[in-house]
Amino acid sequence: MKLLKFKHNGKTYSGIHENNTIIANGTEFDPEKITFLPPVNPPKIICIGFNYKKHNEELKDMATGEPTITLKAPTSVLGHIGKIILPPESGDVQHESELGIVIKKGGYRIKNPVEHILGYTIVNDVTARDIERKMVQWSASKSFPTFCPFGPFIETEINPGDLEITCKVNGELRQNARTSQMIYSPEECVKFVSKFMELQKDDLIATGTPPGVGKLEEGDEIEIKIPGIGTLKNSVGK
């Protein structure tokens, strides 16, 4: 089941996407006539870093050798079709296409992660790479407003073990990988994160980006696709 949030005529709805139709409160809505919102308002956004070996090689000057964790401000969320705003503080904002995990039930030191997962979504962990390198601590580089597009849906019935992730910028393929190439599987990511912090309902975990990250420019159009979940589309502006 694909869950989503959206606005229509000034009202906010929670609904499902089924057969190319949006259904909320027993009413059908045209997907072309709604405004997509982030599917949840996460109390925390936790980013797994360097969860693909080839991405470690791509950024070997920064790579930690094994997966690590940073936090992204909840105020960075952006919905499907929304615009990513390039901040004046950075000259090198990059896309990072990722599988996202939405938490259903909170917990600390979780042993059975499947019981705590609501479903899976698509995340663009937008990062100001120059700030990330300069400050060493990564949260500032990832927390600008609009730096966490995710959605359009949360898919509650999918096996995340071997999903394809592709990212296109202006139609050009930049990233193409499978979740089976992760060092930590999605379920292991939940266990890993919960060793260090208590997870809460609606927390969002971004499970790490594959290689192929690249710079975004004003006017760019980004499409990140995970079959079975959907396609997250965003534009870039100032």
Topology diagram in text:
Layout: E1 2-8, E2 11-18, E3 21-24, E4 27-29, E5 35-37, E6 45-49, H1 53-58, E7 68-72, E8 77-78, E9 83-85, E10 93-95, E11 97-103, E12 117-124, E13 127-128, H2 129-135, H3 139-142, E14 148-155, E15 164-169, E16 172-178, H4 186-194, E17 204-206, E18 214-215, E19 221-226, E20 230-237
Parallel strand pairs: 6-17, 8-14, 9-20
Antiparallel strand pairs: 1-2, 1-5, 1-14, 2-3, 3-4, 6-7, 10-13, 10-18, 11-12, 11-17, 12-14, 15-16, 15-19, 19-20
Shape: globular
Radius of gyration, in Å, reads 17 Å
Tell me about the largest β-sheet. 12 strands, mixed
Weakly predicted, low-confidence segments: none
**Helicity range:** 10-25%
Task: Give me some keywords for this one.
238 residues; twelve-stranded mixed β-sheet; SH3 type barrels; mainly beta
